[in-house]
Structures are given as C-alpha cells and as structure tokens.
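Subgroup meeting minutes
Present: P.N., E.W., G.H.
Scribe: E.W.

1. P.N. recapped why we're keeping a running log of single-chain structure predictions: easier to compare across weeks, and new members can see raw inputs and outputs side by side.
2. G.H. added today's entry (173 aa).
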Amino acid sequence: MHRSFAVTSIESPLGVLGLLAGEHGLMMLSLNGPLDSILPRVLRCKRDHAKGRLNPWQVLEQAHEELVEYLLSAREKFETPLDLSCGTEFQRSVWRRLQRVPFGRTISYAELAEAAGKQGAARAVGNAVGANPLPIFVPCHRVLAAGGKLGGFSGGLWRKKQLLAIESIRAAG
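Output recorded in log:
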C-alpha cells in the first residue's frame, strides 16, 4: 500500500520544530528539532483507512500557519486534522481528553486520569502524556503536577514555561 508523508522543520521562539504529516493528518511535532529516523515508527502505525485522504503538504501548511498564530497569541484552538494512530487505545483516549482542556486552563495528572475514566491511574496517564506525538496541538503543556507545579515536559521545562506564558498561565515552582 502506498502512503504519502510530508516533513518540514520551522524556526520558532521554541527553537526548531519538526513536523510530519500523512494522508490522515498531522502525525508528529518534534520540539527538539528536525524529525530524524522516525519514518520506520510511523510506517508501523495502524491506520484508520475509513478516514478520507488528505494532501500531507496542505496539512503541514495549515499546521504551520496555526502554530505561528498560536505562538503570537492570536489563536486559542487548532483546526489542523490530527492523526493519532501511532498511539495505543489508552494513549489516544488520554490525548483526546487533553484536547478538551481549554486554552488558558490547566489540569493535574490525577484530574486527567479521572476525566479519562482511569481514576487512580495518574502514573499511567503521565506516561501517555509523555508519549504525546503532537505537543501543543494536543496540549500536554497544560498538565501540571500536584500543587500546580510544573512537573515534567518532554520538550524541556523552559519550553513548557513559554507555552504556559502564551496562555497567561502561572505554575508554581
């Protein structure tokens, strides 16, 4: 089966961001620079073939425009189609719940676990959050540790602080 992908990197106040899109939407955003050696992982992802096929380059163009607007505090909600097929069903359920955390608001790992129907599974939810392939679009930066503390962030705490500042959120510690 033939699959089309598009990859680009963009300069931003957060550093170089790598973006990868496929025929079903945006698949990955790397906060740590260009996407290297991820194609084998992407090719192993299970696809929802019932979804329509998109032009990956148009998906990247839309994602790029929306990211710039977000970073300039001119966008609160993303409309780029996302392809979350590289996650497990549990991870996807956590990521879908994360997408419902409003701009300018935060949620704790425990609250996210409860909202995802996994009460008491804050650690497992934290692992799912850490595996998020689309930070910013799936706003894992809005998840704070107990007491409103920053907690971790795969892109580095300095980036998490910048993303929270864009949304006028102050975290403890």
